[in-house]
Structure formats: structure tokens, C-alpha cells
Design brief:
The chain is an alpha+beta fold and 203 residues long. The chain is built from six helices and five strands; from the N terminus they run H-H-H-E-E-E-H-E-E-H-H.
């Protein structure tokens, strides 16, 4: 394999590089195929926002729990679409589909059987309203509803109870999530939040 004179990278004639960008070995220093790294078939989606989960861990305490912090922020900044007395609804920052909501109690509890009757009732009520509003706004064909209880069950933030409300459309699944681990989302989160919040009925 031909040797690349890295000292001459960037042009010039020092250390054997000619003015036309070729080294004495005949390797062009402006040819990216000789730079560090080997090209492959994968595409890269850079997601630095996920570092908050990596750095803070999967079991945040109440002080740094995103579902405890969200109600202290503005609706726009926290992606909140509705606030109740005991629970609230907000968009998932990492949605499976556009309009993917989470319904959370304000109280920092981990499991569904720790919720009070009032919290259970309002989580249910917000979930029903979310379904009606999303159906009106998005004209979806169905829903996935569910709670992942505990890390072993797949909960991303296991320390704070939350219910998923995921709108589904016919043929909304394709090869991207399976082959490329990628979801194609047609709307930005801010646009989705504004549409759902505007359509949410006033108490």
C-alpha cells in the first residue's frame, strides 16, 4: 500500500510533497480514501442530545428526572400539550411516530400500583383525551398504549411512571427501523406539539 506523507497534508512542498498535491510516492494527499477511517455501507445520524441519558444514567433521582423537571418549564420548551391536577401529557422526545405522547403523574413514582386512585383516574382521562385529539389532528388508524414497568421491561426512564400513547397508521412501518435502526418522522416536534395543544379541549 502506498505511504501517505501526513507532514505534507494541506499542500506545500515540504517533506517531499509537490505543489500539485502529490507526494514523492505518487499518493495524492487530497485523496480522502487515504485519510483515517475506512468507508462502509452505514449512514450516520448524529444524536448528541441523547448524551443527557448516557451521562445521567437510566435511573435519575427526583432532582434530575426529566419528568419532574418538565412541569417547571414552559409548555413549549418541555413539549407539554396538557396539564391536569395530578398528571400531564407531553410529547416523547424520541418518538416512534409523530404525535407519540407520554402521560405522567407529577409525583415521582416508578410503578403503576404506587399511583393513587386520583392519579390513575387522571392518567386514564388524559389518555382518552389524547387519543381523541390525535385522531382529530392526525387522522391515524389506531394506537399503541402501554407502560414499561422497570428497566428489565424496557422503560427508558424507569424511575418515573409514564404511559405511552403512540398513533399508528396503516403501513406506517417499513424496513428502516429493522434494517437501519432509523425512524422517518414527517413533522418537527414543535409543530406537532402546537397542533395537539391547540386542539386539546379546554377543561
Amino acid at each position: 500500500m502506498a505511504r501517505l506523507n501526513l507532514d505534507s497534508y494541506g499542500g506545500g512542498s515540504q517533506d517531499g510533497a509537490s505543489q500539485d498535491g502529490a507526494s514523492q510516492d505518487g499518493v495524492r494527499i487530497d485523496d480522502p480514501s487515504y485519510l483515517v477511517g475506512v468507508p462502509d455501507e452505514f449512514q450516520r445520524l448524529w444524536t448528541p442530545h441523547r448524551m443527557v441519558y448516557i451521562q445521567n444514567g437510566q435511573q435519575p433521582g427526583k432532582d434530575d428526572c426529566p419528568f419532574c423537571v418538565a412541569p417547571t418549564m414552559s409548555d413549549e420548551d418541555a413539549l407539554i400539550v396538557a396539564r391536569g391536577t395530578h398528571a400531564y401529557a407531553l410529547l416523547n422526545l424520541f418518538p416512534y411516530n409523530s404525535g407519540h405522547l407520554l402521560v405522567c403523574p407529577y409525583r415521582h413514582i416508578a410503578l403503576y400500583d404506587e399511583a393513587t386512585p386520583e392519579e390513575v383516574a387522571e392518567i386514564g382521562s388524559l389518555t382518552q383525551t389524547a387519543m381523541r385529539v390525535i385522531r382529530e389532528v392526525s387522522k391515524n388508524d389506531g394506537f399503541n398504549l402501554g407502560m414499561n414497568q422497570g428497566v428489565i421491561a424496557g422503560a427508558g426512564i424507569a424511575a418515573h411512571l409514564h404511559q405511552h400513547v403512540v398513533p399508528r397508521w396503516a403501513q406506517d412501518a417499513n424496513f428502516l427501523p429493522i434494517i437501519a435502526k432509523t425512524k422517518a418522522l414527517p413533522q418537527l416536534l414543535g409543530e406537532v406539539r402546537a397542533a395537539i395543544a391547540e386542539a386539546w379541549p379546554t377543561p
